[in-house]
Each structure stands twice: as structure tokens, then as C-alpha cells.
Design brief:
Blueprint (H helix, E strand, L loop, with lengths): L2 H14 L21 E3 L20 H4 E3 L16 E9 L5 H19 L20 E6 L1 H6 L30 E7 L2 H15 L3 E10 L32 H5 L16 E10 L1 H4 L4 H8 L36 H5 L10 E2 L2 E7 L5 E11 L6 H9 L8 E11 L11 H4 L2
Antiparallel strand pairs: 1-2, 3-5, 3-6, 4-5, 7-10, 7-11, 8-10, 9-10
Helix pairs in contact: 3-5
């Protein structure tokens, strides 16, 4: 049995136990693809105040589900989307360099391993004392400037070259980029916050927070079976994600071992593009249902393409309506972003929704914390975004407010910390 088969069995077991629920804003319900495994060790003791081993409260399957820290890939990439998320970027402190960065990644990795197993590290705050791991994942990445700060510019991948400017961008540099990036996800809000505080405390004097964003998805177990979730516009979002059982999935999403360029430390890793995309909901909600569906190119009720079928049906981009026009309009979001319209470009979308209250202009400060994964952003995100930028019908209803690009190395082997092959190689 292969590594992927083992991971798929773990995910299937998780589904049977009812721990996945909805797949989150990205509609991502997929196995670990050879990366971090998932297991559910449910405490005995029933419900209604019963206790598990050692007198601890009994956990539901949601609370008991554990994602493995060690693996070929870091957790949080192909892990099913969680209910709560935090994104953070850090800048190394003045005077901190490669030595301090290595010590920081060593601390972060030890903390992540303990928390993902449901264990309390030394000096714990006690926030999640009665909670299990709750599918917690903590993922680490490096921004372009990290390599300057650590004297490793010769080992900086070309894939970290700055993203091009897009006409729809309204980027706030204070909430963009950063030396280090951390993604936290969990199916319990307290567990996610607990991890957030632990990561921030571990940074100590080595790094300081550049920006932080908080997100959410549908709660685990909220639906009778896993479903592609809806975004804050009410649209089913993420139907077209590549699937791990597709033969070219790994090639599209993960950096292979022995890749040209001498970046062996990135083997098993991926590149994350992170964008805070505000949705102009007041304007969107003024559109009729018919107009909303034409903007997206899919039915709002079930996510099926306007050309017919079910959510998973292929788009029939050549189908014409009674008026002789394409049923899926030429500027529909689904048409423009389809891989077949972009030379096969594909990325694995795994976002969180956000709502940060009301903006000064009285409109909702809400939208999508867009996160996409690919082996090469110049072949994944960039060509699709360029095409969307030139004529996507959705563009008038969204605003890209921050952006970041991060190299996320492969998972740490037993006894290693994340990024060790870069920092000590």
C-alpha cells in the first residue's frame, strides 16, 4: 500500500466518523496526497459530562481528530478545510539573521507538533485545556525578503519573484508580504486562538507581527455529508479544484525532488499566494439572481454550470442559448478561470471567509482570505489572474486589498524542524 493510500484511508475514516462536515469556502474535500495523515482517536466515556482517560472530558470525533505534523508535505495544504483560521506574517527583528531564524523555526516546529497532537507545551496558557487537537494545522512559509535577511539570496527560488501588478489591485503594503508566513487552521475556535497565541509568544525577540487576519468556514459536521461550501456572496465556491486522484495533481501542486534550479530544500513543498479580497456585498446583493448567475457562470442553487448538469459537470463553453449567445457568457468568472481557458493552469484554492465589521464608508468589511497552492505561481496563479484582470464580470464586485507570496517547504521528517534543509543546508 502506498503512502497516498494510507492517507486516503485515514481521511476516509475521518469522514465515516463524521468529522469533516462541510469542506469550507474552497469546497476542498480531499485526502492528504502523501502528506500529513489524519487520525481520530476518540475517548471512551460517552456524552453528557462523561470523562475520557485520566478524568479528562470526553471528546467528540471533531475534537479528537489529529493531523500529523511530520510528513512529506506540511499539513494545512491538502488537509480538509477547517472551521476557523488565522493568517499571520512576521518580519525578523532588526539584527536577527539566519541563526535567529533557525532557532525560531525550531521553536515553532516543536510547538506545532505538540499542539497538533493535542498536547500542552511548557508555559501553556490553558486556553484549550479541555479541548482535543480538533484538526489543528500550523503551516510555515518564507517570503522573498526572508532570504535577504538571512543571507540566503543565492538559494531564493525564482518562483518567489514579485507578482506582477494587476489593474484591480488596491493593495495595502502594511498588510502584504512579510519575511515569514504562518497559517493556522482548526475545527474549534479556541484551539485555533490557542495556537495563534503560542506562535506569537514563541516569536519572542526574533520576529514581530507584520499583519494578522482571521477567517472562518462552515463548521465541521454542520451538514449530513461533505459539501462544497458557499462564500459570502452565496455562491458555491471551489468546485473546480484539482483532486489528489488526478494523475498530474502532485506535478501541479508540489515541487518535485530533483527539480532544476538546485532548490532541493523545497522538495515536497508548494508556493502559497495569499490575497485579502474584499467583496462589495451591498453592490452584489442589488443584482437579480439571474444576473448573479451570469456573472459567475453557474447556478446559485446547486453550483451547476449554466450549460446544464450538476455541480461537477464540465462546462460546455460552446453551448448557445435561444438568442444565439453563449449560455455561459464570455466574461463569466467560471469561463475565464477555467483551466482549459488558461493553458491548463491550475491551483488548489483553500481560502477562509472573513468579516471584520463595518468599514468607514458603512459597508461590510467582508470577503475572502484567498489562499491558493501551486508548484509554480508563474504557471498557476499569475496567468489566471492576468486573464481575470482583463475582463472578469466579477471584478466590479471585489477588491484585492493585500497580497503575499510565500515558499512553503516540504514537511519536516522525524527529528527535523520546518525549513531545516534551507537554514542548515
Amino acid at each position: 500500500m502506498t503512502e497516498r493510500d494510507n492517507d486516503t484511508l485515514e481521511i476516509s475514516r475521518r469522514r465515516l466518523l463524521g468529522t469533516v462536515g462541510a469542506a469550507g469556502a474552497a469546497g476542498l474535500v480531499i485526502g492528504a496526497a502523501g502528506g500529513a495523515g489524519v487520525s481520530a482517536a476518540v475517548s471512551d466515556g460517552g456524552s453528557g459530562g462523561a470523562s475520557g482517560p485520566g478524568g479528562a472530558p470526553a471528546l467528540s470525533t471533531v475534537g479528537a481528530t489529529e493531523v500529523m505534523f511530520h510528513g512529506k508535505h506540511q499539513a494545512g495544504i491538502t488537509t480538509p478545510s477547517q472551521s476557523r483560521g488565522h493568517l499571520m506574517a512576521f518580519d525578523l527583528a532588526p539584527g536577527a539573521g539566519r541563526k535567529e531564524a533557525a532557532a525560531l523555526l525550531r521553536r515553532w516546529s516543536a510547538t506545532a507538533k505538540a499542539l497538533m497532537a493535542g498536547e500542552a507545551p511548557a508555559g501553556d496558557t490553558g486556553v484549550a485545556l479541555d479541548a482535543g487537537p480538533s484538526s489543528l494545522t500550523i503551516t510555515f512559509g518564507f517570503g522573498r525578503t526572508f532570504f535577504d535577511r538571512t543571507g540566503l539570496t543565492a538559494r531564493r527560488p525564482a518562483e518567489l519573484d514579485p507578482l506582477p501588478a494587476f489593474s484591480s489591485d488596491a493593495l495595502d503594503p502594511r498588510r502584504s508580504e512579510g519575511d515569514l508566513w504562518v497559517q493556522i487552521g482548526a475545527d474549534d475556535a479556541l484551539v485555533a486562538f490557542h495556537a495563534l497565541r503560542a506562535v506569537q509568544k514563541d516569536a519572542g525577540d526574533a520576529a514581530r507581527v507584520r499583519w494578522q487576519m482571521n477567517g472562518f468556514n462552515r463548521s465541521a459536521g454542520a451538514t449530513a455529508k461533505p459539501m462544497t461550501a458557499r462564500n459570502l456572496m452565496g455562491q458555491i465556491d471551489g468546485t473546480g479544484n484539482p483532486k489528489p486522484d488526478e494523475p498530474d495533481f502532485d506535478r501541479r501542486i508540489f515541487v518535485p525532488a530533483g527539480a532544476p534550479g538546485g532548490q532541493e530544500w523545497m522538495a515536497g513543498g508548494s508556493y502559497a499566494v495569499v490575497r485579502r479580497i474584499r467583496m462589495l456585498l451591498d453592490d452584489w446583493e442589488k443584482l437579480s439572481l439571474e444576473k448573479q448567475e451570469k456573472v459567475i457562470g453557474r447556478r446559485k442553487s446547486d453550483g451547476a454550470p449554466l450549460s446544464g448538469g450538476t455541480e461537477t459537470s464540465e462546462l460546455d463553453l460552446n453551448k448557445l442559448g435561444p438568442d444565439g449567445r453563449p449560455v455561459i457568457p464570455d466574461n463569466a468568472h467560471a469561463r475565464i478561470s477555467a483551466p482549459e481557458q488558461n493553458g491548463g493552469a491550475a491551483m488548489l484554492r483553500r481560502p477562509f471567509s472573513f468579516h471584520d465589521g463595518i468599514a468607514p464608508d458603512g459597508t461590510p468589511d467582508a470577503g475572502l482570505l484567498f489562499i491558493c497552492w501551486q508548484a509554480d505561481p508563474l504557471r498557476g496563479f499569475v496567468p489566471v489572474q492576468r486573464k481575470l484582470d482583463r475582463g472578469d464580470a466579477l471584478s466590479p464586485f471585489i477588491r484585492h486589498e493585500s497580497s503575499g507570496l510565500y515558499a512553503v517547504p516540504g514537511g519536516a521528517a522525524e527529528g527535523e524542524y520546518v525549513g531545516q534543509r534551507l537554514l542548515e543546508g
